Known about the structure:
Keywords: Membrane, Transmembrane, Transmembrane helix. It holds the Pfam family DUF2304. This protein is mainly α and 132 residues long. The protein has helices at 4-24, 30-48, 51-56, 65-131. The protein has four helices and no strands.
Amino acid sequence: MIDYQWTSTFIGVLIAGLILFLVRRDHLHGPYAVWWLFVAATVVVLGAFPELFDKVAPFFGVAYPPILAVVLGMGLLLLKVLTMDLERSRQERKLRRLVQRLAVLEASLEKVQPIQHAQGEGEEEVSSRRLE
């Protein structure tokens, strides 16, 4: 029977391998990969040395050490969701500004096109007069 430490370590190594595979295939970009590699390293370390919780939990006043892992995991998930929302807000703001710039460019282009069209017609008249 396999020890749970080996199972946790194997899961962490598997997550790290999957992240590196996704980065190599350009499906996952740098800052996100760093976050997930940190998670994989944490799983490997805490899976290989679960007694760390027994030593750290009393320091934080946690009487039942496994609860510290649950609380840390939930805290990291909340932090990840917050960073995802911040990134999404940044992208939406950037997209809104790009749409506004495009609208300004289209408006200025509509002002310029009738002038160029009128100048083009004027040049055609001049060139046709020269031919005559």
